[in-house]
Amino acid sequence: MKKSIGVLAILLFGVLNMAFLFETFNYVKADEFKQWLDSGKAMVMVDIQVKDEFSLHHFKDSIETNAFPVETEEQREMIAQAVTAAKEAGTDVVVICPRGGGGAKRCYSYLKDQGIAEEKLFILEGGVEKWPYKEMLLSC
């Protein structure tokens, strides 16, 4: 009985991860995001970098969540402030991640599940690591 429950749990985990593989995401390229920043476009920036990375490099007015890699319920709860801000603003929402990979996708999916319209959700392609305009980043 215990063995079949374990197998069932593994299968369920695999199915959930496969669904994640087929989900689509909206990305914003660095050049376009720079234009948004330069123009003062209204948006909510949800930065999920861990505290040490956020302190080294982040965008002005981004919401610090320290929720990376957004795998646990506790980490998802760290995004609550950003969910509220996004719902109140009604603007585009850009997820900022170290590399724009799995953590950003999990954050994007969570924001979508919380009622943020998918057409307003974006992931910064390549994350902070690939951001070519380092002079635009702030440090604490």
Report on this model:
With 140 residues, the chain is of the alpha/beta class. It has a single domain (24-136), classed as Rhodanese-like domain (Oxidized Rhodanese, domain 1, 3-Layer(aba) Sandwich), CATH 3.40.250.10. Helix content is 46%, strand content 13%. It is built from 6 helices and 5 strands; from the N terminus they run H-E-H-E-H-E-H-H-E-H-E. The protein has helices at residues 2-22, 30-39, 51-56, 73-77, 80-89, 102-113; strands spanning 27-28, 43-47, 63-64, 92-96, 121-124. The chain has a 5-stranded parallel beta sheet. Helix 3 links the parallel strand 2 and strand 3 (63-64). The termini are far apart.
Quick summary:
This protein is of the alpha/beta class.
Global Rg: 16 Å
Beta-strand fraction estimate: 5-15%
Number of helices: 6
Question: What's the architecture in CATH terms?
Answer: 3-Layer(aba) Sandwich
Mind sketching the topology for me?
Elements (H helix, E strand, L loop, with lengths): L1 H21 L4 E2 L1 H10 L3 E5 L3 H6 L6 E2 L8 H5 L2 H10 L2 E5 L5 H12 L7 E4 L16
Parallel strand pairs: 1-5, 2-3, 2-4, 4-5
Question: Which features characterize this protein?
Answer:
6 helices, Oxidized Rhodanese, domain 1, 140 residues, five-stranded parallel beta sheet, single chain
